[in-house]
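Support request, please re-run this one:
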Amino acid sequence: ALAAASSVAGSGSAAAQAPGPTPRFLPGVRWFDGPVADPAEPRLGVGLVSTNVLATQGPERLPFSRPSAGTEMQASAAIGGTVPLFRLLDWPGGGLVVSAQAGVFARFRISRPSRDDLGQDWIAALPVEARWRDVAARVRLTHRSSHLGDEFAEQSGADRIEVGGEAVEALFAWYAADALRLYGGGGRVFHSNTDNTDVLQRERRLDRYTVQAGADLVWTPWRDEDWSVIGGIDYQSAERTGWAGAIAAAGGVRVRSGTRNVRLIARYLDGNSPLGQFFLTPERFWSLEFAIDF
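Re-run finished. Output below.
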């Protein structure tokens, strides 16, 4: 996915130097930008995270040893992105494009001498993006899976739980102003491994439906329109958490170069952890992240 993304980014730069018709295959066209504050939106980035995710024992698994029961510093890594594959249709003010997404999100306990990997979450998706002037949509087929870090499991005695599955997700957005976008939608999980976890079995809870809503702001106060101030707020909730949600916020600076965006962004989250292995554990974190979007 990264190799294909680099190819698309390169072709986008060449197209900027030699204007011509947009190719139908690998067009380098996006009609739905990922939510700014969504912590699980595929991207390429690294960051520092101050988190209390291990301060409370969640009900996902049997009790395990938590050497750090307070706030600790962790490193985050996100490896992935979105690659437009095929331009289906064009019309005034928009079009329709099929893309591919892949991403892995990992956390490392850098404040511990062992530097152990806390866990990784994987996503692979096939999005269809569309836009009609001030209205946009993204419908995607997704696969998600979650894995506990081997070193963390060995040192803490924590058991890995089977979390993930396949779903159809849809987001709809309205560009209320030049700088403001409002969005909302949800998903239907049609195959869930999370249903089989002891905690959901015990509480007779299903993993079927998800909801998401939020807003993005892109403000360009400088003459150079490639430089922007960006921000966003995102809310997500799911049936598997008993509809207990998480609210995330993000803000920073974005620099655009061709089809690529470089971002320095601060993030905040309060609610159930976005880490799949801790999906019922309350977490509050602050982070500073450097990311590249293709």
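Confidence is low (pLDDT under 50) at residues 1-19. The first strand starts at residue 44 and ends at 51.
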